[in-house]
């Protein structure tokens, strides 16, 4: 047929043989599961398999909305994500600004390097550290009692009212340093002449931060915000499983955990797939929606 | 910018920045120090409170108990094995595929790249992924730690960007000498790309070391569990208590002399020693690897 194509292919057979295993890998580990999403519309069970199971239409999506547990986990996910955005989003930006203003390279470097460290520690360890610290007998209560701020130990983890704030702060502790890197890079890319010109014109440090540094970061900030909004309907399985407990499940149980329980623990595969499909679609709509909105407002788009 | 004169404002901003910076430093590092401190102190003594800076009743008992727990030691070995094999195989596989994809004259390159790009944005999610592993008989199998992590297009993009920067002359002269593509990759390109490989090795290694999900949900044989999963058990409430009594029991069973001192151990003190033992490897390699990770992060964010 196309002899030159065959010949060309044969000439680079080694290159092709190096690339094709990767393509095959993606076909198996990414594309088969993507097709597997169809079981959300089927009555899937392990015995009859994918092709043997009959179609169920939208049955599982209807079931989902009539399950109070789902509605609760969806509400929790949304609230926890709002906490994460309102508190967790600005902190890395502020951290980057602080780091940038620290005089002396060495001090800055030491602080920066330490701030990344928790990102590399497993969430299992981070969670158990903070669970132990905030235990009624842990060091935080110990410290607060010693300084006389409180007289009775606080049940930080068993009282649901503290959970939202605490889990957000644990997440901030773990990843704020890491998330600051991208803002530090944006700051490093700002043209130094702008600062010099502003300095000559008599702008002080604070003016330079607010009129040069921050405006020049706005592009990156918008991008991170768009991505963050997409995460609004996504909860953190790590946080929910590792910081949550029966005492605070009324506020800590998120959709990911619900999917895990329904799917892997109860074997309701089709139902669980329907839940996570619904969630992914919602997340995509949010990303595109915010993308469109920020595009309208300040011309920053990522897609 | 050269400072001609420090204004009052400069001084204030500098001071605030340094104070806040030191606050960040303490908030980040003190929790680790506290674990270290309390792991070396007798548990019952620590429970009386007021222990913040230096050990009061020094002991190695907590470590003695933690390190004589066979399940923990085995999980430690499994985790090391998994991290080393997973990182090396993922590194080699990803960079080999990337080498092919980095060649502009590769037939069907566009098709391959689009196919890979889609996987960065869409995935089948938890359940279809689980069913696939089940059908491939990877559940309850050590290979479930290795095979699904062999390739990621995100890392491939970083490597491809690096390969494109390499001068063409190196390969051309090897080609003239009659070397094939695979030989060139293994003997010349792979060794030359140490900087980018170090970055990716760090990410892969950390992911392997920290992953708790795979063994908690895909492995039922406890002998194959990795350390984070065992830790979840040791560190969680009731189960942790049973586990610790079991640990203490096995120690006092071995040696009657340690019976007394092991009774001063508490759930807390054992937890702290366990935390130190598991965090230590990361802290030890971190200073050597962190510069690669910042570099990799930046390349990644520019691409994205």
From TrEMBL, chain A:
Residues 74-290 form the ABC transmembrane type-1 domain. InterPro entries: MetI-like, MetI-like_sf. The keyword Membrane applies. Its main location: membrane. It is found in: Cell membrane; Membrane. The chain crosses the membrane at residues 20-41, 78-102, 114-133, 172-191, 212-233, 269-293. It is a multi-pass membrane protein. Keywords: Membrane, Transmembrane, Transmembrane helix, Transport. GO terms for biological process: transmembrane transport. CDD domains: TM_PBP2 (cd06261). One of its GO terms (cellular component) is plasma membrane. PROSITE patterns: ABC_TM1. SUPFAM superfamilies: MetI-like. Belongs to the binding-protein-dependent transport system permease family. This is ABC-type polysaccharide transport system, permease component. It comes from Ruminiclostridium cellobioparum subsp. termitidis CT1112.
UniProtKB/TrEMBL annotation, chain B:
The keyword Membrane applies. It is found in: Cell membrane. It is a multi-pass membrane protein. Belongs to the binding-protein-dependent transport system permease family. GO terms for cellular component: plasma membrane. Keywords: Cell membrane, Membrane, Sugar transport, Transmembrane, Transmembrane helix, Transport. This is ABC-type sugar transport system, permease component. It comes from Ruminiclostridium cellobioparum subsp. termitidis CT1112. It comes from the Bacteria.
């Amino acid at each position: 047929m196309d002899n030159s194509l065959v010949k060309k292919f044969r000439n680079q057979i080694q290159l092709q043989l190096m690339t094709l295993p990767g393509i095959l890998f993606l076909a198996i580990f990414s594309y088969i599961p993507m097709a597997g999403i169809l079981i959300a519309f089927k009555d899937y069970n392990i015995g009859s398999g994918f092709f043997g199971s009959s179609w169920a239409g939208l049955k599982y999506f209807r079931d989902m909305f009539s399950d109070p547990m789902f509605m609760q986990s969806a509400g929790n996910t949304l609230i926890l994500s709002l906490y994460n955005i309102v508190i967790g989003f600005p902190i890395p930006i502020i951290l980057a600004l602080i780091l940038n203003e620290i005089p002396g390279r060495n001090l800055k470097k030491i602080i920066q390097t330490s701030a990344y460290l928790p990102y590399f520690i497993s969430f299992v360890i981070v969670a158990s550290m903070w669970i132990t610290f905030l235990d009624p007998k842990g060091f935080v209560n110990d410290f607060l009692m010693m300084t006389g701020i409180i007289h009775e130990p606080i049940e930080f983890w068993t009282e649901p009212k503290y959970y939202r704030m605490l889990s957000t702060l644990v997440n901030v502790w773990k990843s704020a340093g890491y998330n600051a890197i991208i803002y530090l890079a944006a700051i490093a890319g700002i043209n130094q002449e702008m600062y010099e010109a502003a300095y000559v014109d008599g702008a002080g440090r604070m003016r330079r931060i607010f009129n040069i540094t921050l405006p020049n970061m706005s592009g990156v900030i918008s991008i991170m915000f768009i991505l963050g909004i997409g995460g609004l309907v996504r909860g953190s399985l790590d946080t929910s499983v590792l910081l949550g407990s029966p005492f605070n499940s009324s506020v800590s149980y998120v959709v990911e955990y619900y999917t895990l329980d329904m799917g892997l623990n109860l074997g309701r595969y089709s139902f669980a797939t329907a839940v996570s499909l619904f969630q992914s679609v919602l997340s995509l709509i949010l990303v595109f929606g915010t993308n469109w909105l920020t595009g309208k407002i300040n011309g920053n788009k990522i897609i | 910018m050269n400072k001609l004169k420090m204004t009052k404002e400069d001084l204030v901003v500098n001071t605030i920045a340094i104070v806040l910076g030191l606050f960040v430093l303490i908030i980040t590092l003190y929790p680790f120090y506290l674990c270290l401190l309390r792991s070396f102190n007798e548990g019952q003594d620590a429970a009386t409170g007021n222990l913040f800076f230096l050990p009061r009743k020094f002991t190695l008992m907590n470590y003695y108990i933690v390190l004589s727990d066979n399940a923990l030691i085995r999980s430690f070995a499994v985790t090391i094995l998994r991290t080393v094999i997973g990182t090396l195989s993922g590194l080699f596989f990803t960079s080999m595929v990337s080498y092919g994809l980095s060649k502009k004259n590769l037939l069907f390159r566009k098709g391959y790249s689009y196919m890979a790009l889609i996987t960065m944005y869409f995935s089948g999610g938890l359940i279809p992924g689980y069913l696939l592993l089940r059908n491939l008989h990877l559940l309850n199998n050590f290979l479930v730690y290795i095979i699904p992590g062999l390739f990621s297009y995100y890392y491939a993009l970083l490597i491809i960007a690096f390969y494109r920067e390499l001068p063409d002359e190196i390969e051309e002269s090897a080609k003239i000498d009659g070397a094939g593509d695979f030989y060139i990759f293994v003997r010349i390109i792979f060794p030359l790309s140490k900087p980018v490989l170090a970055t990716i090795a760090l990410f892969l290694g950390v992911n392997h070391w920290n992953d708790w999900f795979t063994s908690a949900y895909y492995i039922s044989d406890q002998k194959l569990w990795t350390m984070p999963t065992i830790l979840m058990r040791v560190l969680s409430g009731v189960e942790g208590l049973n586990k610790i009594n079991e640990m203490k029991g096995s120690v006092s069973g071995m040696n009657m002399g340690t019976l007394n001192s092991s009774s001063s151990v508490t759930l807390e003190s054992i937890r702290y020693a366990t935390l130190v033992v598991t965090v230590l490897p990361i802290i030890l390699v971190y200073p050597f690897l962190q510069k690669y990770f910042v570099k990799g992060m930046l390349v990644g964010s520019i691409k994205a």
